[in-house]
């Protein structure tokens, strides 16, 4: 009888210990991937390099900057759909737009401020209507300004992940989603360096020099330990969705190589939930974007 009672006590204490870990104490929080999937923190990082230039990179079907604008509208649509399904008293969600480096036009700073929105229990329908309007109209001025300026200094995505992503895009007790609008190439003169076989950048010229132009590119990448230099670690609380991969012509494997670099980079940094999508027409990507936001993990 004593043995049975002792076994019961041990099993009970073990069960309590498991429940406590699931709830997540101070030590366990770091191991928790998503603390509250009902509260969203959505960020958009826009690559304003010459990929959006309709002269340098024209597309007769739909210009790439116009595709970006529709992607942004779809992200906004998915975010608002999530908001509308919640009770007002439970609202604790936000969305914002980032550039790295910041555009030279100071007016874009003001636009960025208007695109940073937060919803709480005091949110009204007017706030939602204003957000829908702002995300439909204001991003146009950002792209028009960048195209008109024409300097295209590039987008320092590597540095953003190194120094800013944790502070800007990861909010405690939230489901954190970062959308990156880029063609997949990564280059900025301020962050261009190599560490042994890895680099902080990726260009079509680099892919050519590495001779990643045949069907065994994955084996070559693995054998040569090629890829991006790890910029950060412990980013398991961040989901990333890359939109707009657009390889240069001439290498039938270039797109797959670009995606392989990004995928391996995310894994190195502890990011386990990610999607990498080509610069498809917005009508094809919109359902994917909305599903990524509204579907709880």
Fold and architecture overview:
The protein is of the alpha/beta class and 297 residues long. The protein has one domain: Rossmann fold. It has helices at 2-23, 64-84, 107-114, 125-149, 157-163, 165-169, 204-209, 217-224, 254-268, 282-294, and strands spanning 40-46, 93-98, 117-119, 175-181, 194-195, 198-199, 227-228, 238-245, 274-278. The strands form two sheets. The protein has a six-stranded mixed beta sheet, sandwiched between helices. A three-stranded mixed beta sheet has the order 5-6-7. β5 and β6 (198-199) form a beta hairpin. The longest helix is centred in the middle third of the chain and has 25 residues, at 125-149. The chain is globular, with a radius of gyration of 22 Å. Residues 1-34 have low confidence and may be disordered.
Strand order of the largest sheet: 3-2-1-4-8-9
Number of helix segments? 10
| Secondary-structure arrangement, i.e. CATH architecture | 3-Layer(aba) Sandwich
* Largest sheet properties: 6 strands, mixed
**Structural class computed from helices and strand pairing:** alpha/beta
In N-to-C order, the SSE pattern is HEHEHEHHHEEEHHEEHEH
Unreliable residue stretches: 1-34
What assembly state would you assign to the polypeptide chains in this entry? single chain
Average predicted local confidence, pLDDT: 88
Give the count of structural domains. Answer: 1
> How much is the radius of gyration in Å?
22 Å
Q: Helical percent range?
A: 40-55%
- Tally of DSSP β-strands: 9
Distance between the termini: 45 Å
The third-level CATH topology is: Rossmann fold
Q: Which geometry do the CA atoms define? A: globular
Organism: Chryseobacterium camelliae
Protein name: VWFA domain-containing protein
């Amino acid at each position: 009888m004593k043995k049975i009672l002792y076994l019961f006590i041990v099993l009970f204490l073990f069960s309590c210990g498991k429940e406590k870990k699931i709830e997540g104490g101070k030590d366990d929080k770091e191991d928790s991937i998503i603390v509250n999937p009902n509260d969203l923190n959505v960020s958009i990082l826009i690559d304003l390099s010459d990929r959006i230039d309709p002269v340098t990179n024209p597309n007769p079907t739909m210009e790439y900057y116009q595709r970006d604008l529709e992607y942004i509208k779809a992200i906004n649509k998915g975010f608002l759909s999530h908001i509308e399904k919640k009770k007002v008293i439970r609202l604790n969600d936000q969305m914002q737009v980032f550039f790295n480096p910041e555009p030279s036009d100071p007016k874009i700073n003001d636009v960025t401020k208007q695109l940073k929105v937060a919803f709480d229990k005091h949110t009204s329908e007017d706030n939602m209507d204003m957000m829908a309007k702002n995300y439909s109209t204001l991003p146009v001025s950002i792209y028009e300004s960048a195209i008109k300026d024409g300097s295209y200094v590039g987008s320092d995505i590597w540095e953003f992940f190194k120094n800013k992503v944790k502070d800007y895009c990861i909010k405690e007790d939230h489901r954190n989603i970062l959308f990156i609008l880029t063609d997949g190439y990564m280059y900025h003169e301020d962050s261009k360096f190599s560490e042994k076989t890895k680099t902080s950048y990726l260009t079509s010229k680099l892919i050519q020099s590495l001779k990643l132009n045949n069907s065994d590119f994955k084996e070559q990448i693995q054998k040569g330990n090629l890829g991006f230099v790890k910029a950060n670690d412990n980013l398991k609380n961040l989901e990333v969705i890359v939109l707009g991969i657009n390889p240069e012509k001439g290498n039938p494997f270039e797109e797959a190589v670009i995606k392989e670099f990004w995928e391996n980079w995310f894994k190195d940094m502890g990011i386990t939930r990610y999607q990498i999508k080509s610069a498809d027409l917005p009508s094809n990507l919109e359902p994917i974007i909305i599903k990524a936001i509204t579907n709880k993990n």
